[in-house]
UniProtKB/TrEMBL annotation:
SUPFAM superfamilies, per database record: lambda repressor-like DNA-binding domains (SSF47413)
Origin organism lineage: Bacteria, Bacillati, Actinomycetota, Actinomycetes, Bifidobacteriales
Native source organism of the sequence: Bifidobacterium hominis
Entries under Pfam families matching the protein: HTH_26
Gene3D superfamilies: lambda repressor-like DNA-binding domains
Protein name: Helix-turn-helix transcriptional regulator
Length: 71
């Protein structure tokens, strides 16, 4: 997969833990960790919207396309 998830970077910038984000967006900490660690196969736009609203960022701050990664 050539999509890199930079959620860990955004959490560090906002000084927020996985548990705090999970509580704020209404999903389990396990699901936030799956997304943060790049193991998620998909993300709902509504979840991405809520993450961006909570972290005051753009979708491109959380997700990044990288040429050739994961080949």
């Amino acid at each position: 997969m050539a999509i890199r998830v930079n959620l860990d970077v955004m959490l560090a910038k906002r000084k927020m833990s996985v548990n705090e984000l999970a509580e704020a967006i209404g999903i389990t900490p396990v699901n936030v960790s799956v997304l943060k660690n790049g193991r998620a196969k998909a993300i709902r736009f509504s979840t991405l919207d809520t993450i961006c609203e909570t972290l005051h960022c753009q979708p491109g701050d959380v997700l990044e396309w990288v040429d050739g990664e994961g080949e």
